[in-house]
Design goal:
- Among the domains are: 264 residues, Metalloenzyme, LuxS/M16 peptidase-like (Cytochrome Bc1 Complex, Chain A, domain 1), CATH 3.30.830.10; 226 residues, 2-Layer Sandwich (Cytochrome Bc1 Complex, Chain A, domain 1), CATH 3.30.830; 188 residues, Metalloenzyme, LuxS/M16 peptidase-like (Cytochrome Bc1 Complex, Chain A, domain 1).
- The protein is α+β, with helices and mostly antiparallel strands.
- The strands form five sheets. Strands 1, 2, 3, 4, 5, 6, 7, 8 and 11 form a nine-stranded mixed beta sheet that branches.
- It contains 36 helices and 28 strands.
- The two termini are 21 Å apart.
C-alpha cells in the first residue's frame, strides 16, 4: 500500500475502460523503409493476408501467415522508435497445477543456442531493453520484449525465439524442480519441504483475498471450461504436477502452428520477417494443434458458492467477508457490448455519484463497493463486489442489487452522469495517445480477438462503437444492458468469501503433517536418494555459467550508448509567492498540472490528519456541490485527480526534507478553467463538518487499509525499513501502520468526540493548501502554455496564506529489528541502512554496483537457490541502501545472503566485456520509456530537490567510467551497512514467531498498540 494513499477520482472507474482503449499512438503514418507490400504475395515465407491503414492508431497494419508452419504474425508499422516483439501461444490448462506459468518461467532458463542458466537475467545485464518479461494469462502465454536500439531489439528477439522453441528444460528436469516445485531434504533427520520459484510466488499470491475471490468467481461462472482452473497455479495443486506432463504440455502447444506473433514500431519489417523465417520457423512444419478455447454453456439458474481466506490469529473477523454477484456478459465478438459494459461498470459502481454504489452504501451491508468488468477470457464477466461485509447479509445484498437495478431501469440513469463518464473516457483516450509504452498494450488489444480466431484488428479501433453508444445512450442503451445482462441473466453466481482466523497456520500444520506422512512412507534408501537429489540440485545451482556459454549471448558495445542531456526540459518562472515550472512537450492538447503545496506550517502532532485529509476531500460536499455532483463534474472535465502527501529529500543535504501536499491532475487544455474551478471547490470550500458522511468515508478508508495491510508485505517492509534510518522516510511512514491505527482512533472519536475530529481536520485543511511557496508544474504543448499560465495565476489568488512559521520536524528512530505479521503465507525480508550517515558519498557508479549485486548475486542466491520469487535492491542518492526479498519462503537464510554481499564483492573479477555489459544494463535506466506527464514529474522533482541537469550528466559519466576495482572497493561500504543490523521482515505468522528471538519487537498489523 502506498503510504500516501491517493484519492479518487478514477481509482476503479475509467481506468477499467482504458485497459481496453489504451496505448494509442501520436505518430503520423510513416513511409516504411520496406516500401510497398502486395496482399497475397509472400515475403520470406510469410504470406500477406491483408493490409490497412488504421488512423486511430496511426499505423500501417499488416496481417501475415507463415505458409510452412501456419504461424500467424501481425505488424503495426509507425514512427515510434520503441520497437516491440511478442510471441503468444494459446495455452489451455486442464488443471490448477500451474503448467503454463511454470513453463513461462522455465523457457527463460536456457536454450539450444544460449545454453546458460538464465539468458533472461543475463540479458538484463547487457541490454538497453525498455521491456523484458513474460506473462501468463488465463488462456495464453505471452513473451514480449522491446527496445529503442535496432541491434538490441534483434538480439532480444533472437534470445526469446530460441527460448520458446528450444528450451533446455525439455531434457533437464532440474529446471522444472527449480522453477516449479520439488521435495527438499538436506539430511535424513530434517523435515521434507516443498521448494520452487512458482510455488513460492503463488504462496504469496494466494495470500491476497482478492486473488482468492477472483479464482472462486471464475470457478463459479465457468465450471466446465479451462477458466475454472488457475493457469498461474494453486499452491496446493502445484506439487501434483509431474515433469512428464509439463514437458508434454510444451511439446503440444509451443509450436509455430499455435503461435501468434506481434511486431510494432519503426522497424525494418522485411529484415525482421527474414530473420524469423530463416533462423526459426523454417525448421518446423505445420502441425494440427487442438487449442481452441471452448465456451461455457449458459446456466439455467444462479449458483451460490462459498470460499475462505486467512486472517492472522487474534484478528477480529467481524465484517471482513467479501460478497460478489457475478454475471457472464456475452462474448468477445461483440465489441460494442465490450465497450458498453466497461462504461456501465463505471456508471453503476465506481464513483461517488454511481447510483448502485450509493444505494448499497445506504443499505449498510459493507464498505468498499465497486464493479469489476473482466474481459480477459472468451466470455467476459461483470462483478458487483462489497468488501468488509457480514456473510449473514449475503441474501440481503442479492435482493438489494436486484431491487435497485430494477429501479434504475424504471427511472433511467442520470444523463449527466452518463455524459460525464463518456467525457472522462474521451479525455483519457487523448492522453493515452502519448503513452510511452503503447506498443506493448496493442498486443493485448489484438489478442483479445485473435486468441479466439477473430479478426486481430477488431479491438484496435473504438471510435465508431463509442459514437454509436453515445447516440444510443439517449434512448435507454445502458438501461437495456442492465435489464438483459444483469436482471434477466441466469448465468450468474453469488460468491461469498469468508475470513478464518489462523487459517494459514492450520494449513501449514496440515502441510507439515502431509509431508511428514510422505517422509515416513519412504525407505531409508529412498530418503538417502532424496538427500542426494537435494544436494545435486544445490550443487547445480551453485555452478556458474561458463565464459564460453556466456559469450554466446549477443551483446552491445559502449558505442551504442549516448549520454542524455536535459531529458526533462524545465523553464522556471518565479512570481510573488508562487513558482511555475513549464515543461514544453508534445501532449496532444492535454494539460498535465501538478500543485506542490508547502505543508511545513502544520504541527508535527497533526501530521496524521494531513495523511488522512486526501482521503476525505473530494469525498465530501463543498459549498456549491454535493459530493455526488462534485464527482460527476470532475468526471466530465478531468482525466485524473490525485491528492497525496509527499516528502522530497534535498539532493545536496540528505537530512533536509521538503514536505508537500501534491495534487496531480490532467485535462484537455481547453478544460483547464473548469478543472481549476473544481479544484477551488475542493481546496477552499470542502465541508468537513458532516459527521455521518465522515463516518462513511472513514469506514471505507479503514477497509482499504485492512485489505492492503493484509496482503502487501513488500510495501510494509520497505516503509518500515526505510523509517529506521532517514527522516524523510519516517515522515512518509506516518501513512502506513501508524496511519491505520490513527484511522481506528478517528473512527472511535467520531462517535465520542466528533467536534475534536472536525476541528483538527478543518485546521489542517486550512494549512495544507497555503499559497505561500506554492510550486506549480505544467507539462503542455508550448502553444497552449500562456493561456494556462493566466488561469493558474488567477487560481492561486483564491488560496489563503497563513502567518504561522514553518515547523521543524524530528522523528525518533523506531525499532531496528522488526517482525511484522500480516495474513500472508510467505515473507518479505529487508535489510539496510543509510550509507551517507556512515560518511560515504553517492556516485553513479553505485547504480552499476546495484545492477551487479542484483543480477549476478541476489538472482542466484535468492531466486535460483532460495526460491524467492523476486527481490528489490535499492541504492539511492539520498543514502538509502537496502535489499528486500519478494514472496520469499525463507527468513534467516535471506538475511544471511545479504550479509555475504561483501564477500561476493571481494571476489568479483569481471573482464572488460563483462563490465561493459553491466554498464549497458545500468544505463538503460537513464533513458526509460516516459510519457510527457512522467517527464514533467521528474522535472518537478529535480527542481524541488535541487538536482540539476549537470548532476544527471555527471551520474551518467560516472556509470560509463565504472571499473571492476570500483565495484570491489564498495565491499567495505556494504559491509558497514550490513553491520548496522537493521532489518524488517513481514509475512507469515508461524515463520516470524518461530524466529522471534531475532527481533526487537514483533507486530501484528491489526493489533498494534
Amino acid at each position: 500500500m502506498n503510504s500516501s494513499k491517493k484519492i479518487l477520482v478514477f481509482g476503479k472507474t475509467i481506468a477499467l475502460v482504458l485497459s481496453i482503449l489504451t496505448f494509442l499512438s501520436p505518430f503520423s503514418i510513416f513511409a516504411s523503409s520496406n516500401n510497398s507490400f502486395i496482399v497475397g504475395k509472400s515475403y520470406f515465407g510469410f504470406r500477406l493476408l491483408e493490409e490497412s491503414i488504421i488512423d486511430e492508431i496511426d499505423s500501417i497494419v499488416r496481417v501475415f501467415e507463415h505458409t510452412k508452419t501456419g504461424a500467424k504474425l501481425i505488424s503495426l508499422n509507425n514512427d515510434d522508435d520503441n520497437k516491440v516483439f511478442t510471441i503468444n501461444f494459446r495455452t489451455p490448462q486442464e488443471n490448477s497445477t500451474g503448467i503454463p506459468h511454470i513453463i513461462e518461467h522455465s523457457v527463460l532458463d536456457g536454450s539450444k543456442n544460449f545454453p546458460i542458466k538464465s539468458p533472461f537475467g543475463e540479458m538484463g545485464k547487457r541490454s538497453l531493453s525498455t521491456f523484458l518479461n513474460a506473462l501468463t494469462h488465463s488462456d495464453r502465454t505471452a513473451y514480449p520484449v522491446s527496445s529503442r536500439n535496432e541491434k538490441d531489439f534483434k538480439n532480444l528477439m533472437n534470445v526469446y525465439l530460441d527460448a520458446v522453441f528450444y528450451p533446455n528444460f525439455l531434457h533437464d528436469e532440474r529446471i522444472f524442480m527449480q522453477e516449479g516445485w520439488s521435495y527438499s531434504l538436506n539430511s535424513v533427520n530434517d523435515e521434507i519441504t516443498y521448494n520452487g520459484v512458482v510455488y513460492n510466488e503463488m504462496q504469496g499470491s494466494y495470500s491476497n483475498p482478492s486473488k482468492v475471490l477472483y479464482n472462486q468467481i471464475m470457478k463459479s461462472l465457468y465450471p466446465d471450461t479451462i477458466y475454472s482452473n488457475d493457469s498461474s497455479g494453486d499452491p496446493s495443486e502445484i506439487p501434483n504436477l509431474a515433469y512428464e506432463e509439463y514437458v508434454n504440455f510444451h511439446k503440444t502447444y509451443y509450436h509455430p502452428s499455435n503461435s501468434f506473433m506481434y511486431l510494432y514500431g519503426n522497424l525494418n519489417l522485411l529484415d525482421t520477417l527474414k530473420f524469423i523465417d530463416e533462423e526459426y520457423l523454417n525448421q518446423f512444419n505445420k502441425k494440427e494443434i487442438d487449442s481452441v478455447i471452448s465456451m461455457q454453456k449458459p446456466f439455467c439458474e444462479r449458483v451460490y458458492e462459498e470460499a475462505f481466506y486467512s486472517l492472522p490469529e487474534n484478528t477480529d473477523p467481524t465484517n471482513k467477508s467479501y460478497l460478489s454477484l457475478n454475471y457472464v456478459v456475452g462474448d468477445t465478438k461483440d465489441k460494442e457490448l465490450y465497450l458498453g459494459f466497461s462504461i456501465l461498470s463505471s456508471l453503476l459502481l465506481n464513483g461517488n455519484s454511481s447510483p448502485l454504489k450509493l444505494a448499497l452504501q445506504q443499505e449498510g451491508i459493507g464498505t468498499n463497493i465497486y464493479g469489476q468488468y473482466s474481459a480477459s477470457q472468451i466470455q467476459p464477466f461483470f462483478s458487483i463486489i462489497i468488501e468488509n461485509a457480514s456473510k449473514e447479509n449475503a441474501i440481503m445484498f442479492e435482493q438489494s442489487v436486484e431491487n435497485n437495478l430494477n429501479q434504475l431501469v424504471k427511472k433511467g440513469l442520470d444523463k449527466n452522469l452518463i455524459n460525464s463518464v463518456i467525457s472522462s473516457l474521451e479525455i483519457n483516450l487523448r492522453a493515452s495517445k502519448s503513452s510511452a509504452d503503447r506498443g506493448l498494450g496493442f498486443n493485448d488489444n489484438i489478442m483479445t480477438a485473435w486468441n479466439y480466431d477473430m479478426d486481430p484488428t477488431l479491438y484496435l479501433t473504438f471510435e465508431k462503437e463509442l459514437s454509436n453508444i453515445k447516440k444510443k445512450a439517449e434512448n435507454g442503451y445502458f438501461e437495456e444492458l442492465i435489464e438483459k445482462y444483469l436482471i434477466n441473466n441466469p448465468h450468474s453466481s453469488l460468491v461469498i468469501l469468508n475470513p478464518i482466523m489462523g487459517l494459514e497456520t492450520q494449513n501449514q500444520i496440515k502441510l507439515q503433517d502431509k509431508l511428514k506422512e510422505y517422509k515416513e512412507s519412504l525407505s531409508e534408501k529412498e530418503l538417502l536418494s532424496l538427500v542426494e537429489q537435494t544436494k545435486e540440485i544445490e550443487a547445480w545451482k551453485n555452478t556458474p555459467n561458463s565464459k564460453e556459454d556466456l559469450a554466446k549471448l549477443p551483446s552491445l558495445s559502449l558505442d551504442d550508448i549516448d549520454i542524455k542531456e536535459n531529458p526533462f526540459p524545465t523553464d522556471v518562472e518565479k512570481l510573488d509567492e508562487i513558482t511555475i515550472l513549464n515543461h514544453p512537450l508534445y501532449t496532444n492538447k492535454i494539460a498535465y498540472i501538478n500543485f506542490y503545496f508547502d505543508t511545513t506550517k502544520i504541527s508535527q502532532e497533526k501530521l496524521s490528519y494531513l495523511f488522512l485529509l486526501p482521503n476525505i476531500i473530494g469525498m465530501v460536499d463543498t459549498e456549491n456541490y454535493t459530493y455526488q455532483d462534485l464527482f460527476t463534474n470532475i468526471m466530465a472535465n478531468v482525466g485524473q485527480f490525485n491528492c497525496y502527501p509527499a516528502v522530497y529529500t534535498d539532493y545536496e543535504d540528505y537530512k533536509l526534507i521538503h514536505p508537500k501536499m501534491v495534487i496531480s491532475t490532467y485535462t484537455l487544455s481547453s478544460n483547464v478553467s473548469s478543472l481549476l474551478s473544481l479544484l477551488d471547490e475542493i481546496v477552499n470550500k470542502s465541508k468537513l463538518d458532516n459527521v455521518e458522511r465522515l463516518k462513511e468515508v472513514i469506514s471505507e478508508i479503514r477497509g482499504d487499509y485492512e485489505t492492503a495491510l493484509n496482503s502487501n508485505g513488500i510495501n510494509i517492509a520497505k516503509s518500515q525499513l526505510e523509517s529506521y534510518f532517514l527522516q524523510a522516510s519516517r515522515y512518509e511512514n506516518l501513512g502506513t501502520l501508524e496511519q491505520y491505527q490513527f484511522i481506528l482512533q478517528i473512527q472511535e472519536e467520531l462517535n465520542t468526540n466528533p467536534e475534536n475530529v472536525i476541528k483538527n481536520l478543518q485546521e489542517v485543511h486550512s494549512l495544507a493548501f497555503d499559497r505561500k511557496n506554492l510550486l506549480i508544474g505544467v507539462t503542455v504543448d508550448s502553444s497552449e502554455y500562456n493561456n494556462i499560465r493566466k488561469s493558474l495565476i488567477h487560481f492561486s489568488e483564491t488560496l489563503k496564506t497563513s502567518d504561522l512559521e514553518p515547523q521543524t520536524y524530528y522523528f525518533p528512530a523506531s525499532s531496528t529489528k522488526q517482525g511484522v505479521i500480516n495474513g500472508e503465507k510467505i515473507q518479505y525480508v529487508g535489510k539496510g541502512y543509510n550509507f551517507r550517515d556512515l560518511g560515504y558519498d553517492y556516485s553513479g557508479k553505485m547504480q552499476v554496483l546495484r545492477n551487479i549485486i542484483a543480477l549476478e548475486y541476489l538472482w542466484n542466491e535468492l531466486r535460483v537457490k532460495g526460491g524467492a520469487y523476486d527481490f528489490l535492491p535499492n541504492i539511492s542518492e539520498n543514502g538509502n541502501l537496502y535489499f528486500i526479498t519478494y514472496r520469499d519462503p525463507n527468513l534467516k537464510e535471506s538475511l544471511s545472503v545479504f550479509d555475504k554481499i561483501p564477500a561476493f564483492l571481494n571476489t568479483f573479477n569481471a573482464d572488460e566485456q563483462e563490465m561493459t555489459n553491466y554498464i549497458i544494463g545500468t544505463f538503460k535506466n537513464y533513458d526509460p520509456l516516459l510519457n510527457p506527464s512522467q517527464k514533467g514529474d521528474i522535472g518537478d522533482s529535480f527542481y524541488i530537490t535541487g538536482k540539476s541537469n549537470k548532476d544527471y550528466i555527471k551520474e551518467q559519466k560516472e556509470i560509463l567510467n565504472t571499473t571492476t576495482k570500483d565495484i570491489k572497493n564498495y565491499a567495505i561500504l556494504i559491509a558497514d551497512v550490513m553491520k548496522q543490523d537493521n532489518y524488517c521482515i513481514v509475512g507469515n505468522e508461524g515463520k516470524i514467531k518461530e524466529s522471534k528471538e531475532i527481533f526487537d519487537e514483533v507486530l501484528e498489523v491489526f493489533n498494534i498498540n
